[in-house]
Amino acid sequence: MIPMEVMLGSLIHGEVEACSISRVTDELRGPNEAAFKPKEVSIGPLHRGTTSQVQEKIKWHYMREFLNRQQTQQQNRRPEQRLRECGNDIKKLHRVIIASYGGNMESEPEELAEIMIVDGCFLLELLMRLHDNMGNQNDNASSSSYSNDPLLENEEKRVSILNDITMLENQIPFIILKKLYRKVFPDDIKINDDKRVANIVRTVFGCTALSWPVGYWSASDVYPNCSQQVEGQA
C-alpha cells in the first residue's frame, strides 16, 4: 500500500501519477526474465547495478558533459553550481519520486536523489546526442561527432540502448528530466508548458514535435499502435 503522505505528495505536484513506473508482475515475467532486464544501461533504482561498472562510469561521463553544455552567456555556469542546483531541486521531489514507484522504495533520500541526477543527466545527454546524430546523418563532416562514443558506435548498439530506455521498469519520472534540463538551459516558460525535452524524445523515436501543452506524454505518442497512456515516465 502506498503511504498516504506519499500519495498526497504526488497529487499536490500534479505532473506525476502515482505508480506510473511499475514492476512487471511475476506472471508476466514468467520464464523469460531476461527480457525485462536492461542489457546496456540501467535507468532508475529498480535495476540499479545490473549493468557493468564500465557502463556506470559512462553515465558519470555523460553527466559531466551534460552539465558542461551551454548556449548563451546566461547559461554559462560552472557544472558544480549546476549540480548543486539540480540536487536542491530533486531533493524537494522525494515524495513525488517515491509515489511514481508505488511508494515501495528502500533508498534513502540522498541516495535516491543521486540516482535521479546521475541517470537523469545521463539520459538527457544520451537523447541529445541521438538527436544530434539523427540531424547530422546527411552531413559527412558532422556525422562523426560522436564516432568515439561507445554507446553510439554502431546501429546495433543504438537500437539495444533504445530498447533498454523504453523498458517498463527501467525508467525515471519525466518531471526529473524537465527539472534537470531547465537547470542547464533556463527558460522563462512555465515548466508545465515546457515541451523541449518531450520534443527531443519524440524526434529520437521518429515522431513529430509537440504543438500542444505538455503535462504528460503517452506511449501512443511514441508508438502509434499503443493505446495505453503512460504518464510521468521518461
Mean pLDDT equals 78
The value of Rg in angstroms is 17 Å
Order of helices and strands: HHHHHHHHHH
**Portion in helices:** 40-55%
How would you classify the helix and strand content by structural class? mainly alpha
Shape by Cα distribution = globular
Which stretches are low in confidence, meaning pLDDT under 50 for 5 or more residues running?
Answer: 210-233
The N- to C-terminal Cα distance equals 24 Å
Describe the largest sheet. Answer: none
- How many helical elements? 10
Summarize the structure in short.
With 234 residues, this protein is mainly alpha-helical.
Task: Set down the secondary structure blueprint.
Layout: H1 4-13, H2 26-29, H3 53-67, H4 79-91, H5 94-100, H6 109-135, H7 155-165, H8 174-184, H9 196-204, H10 219-222
Helix pairs in contact: 1-5, 3-6, 4-6, 4-8, 6-8, 6-9
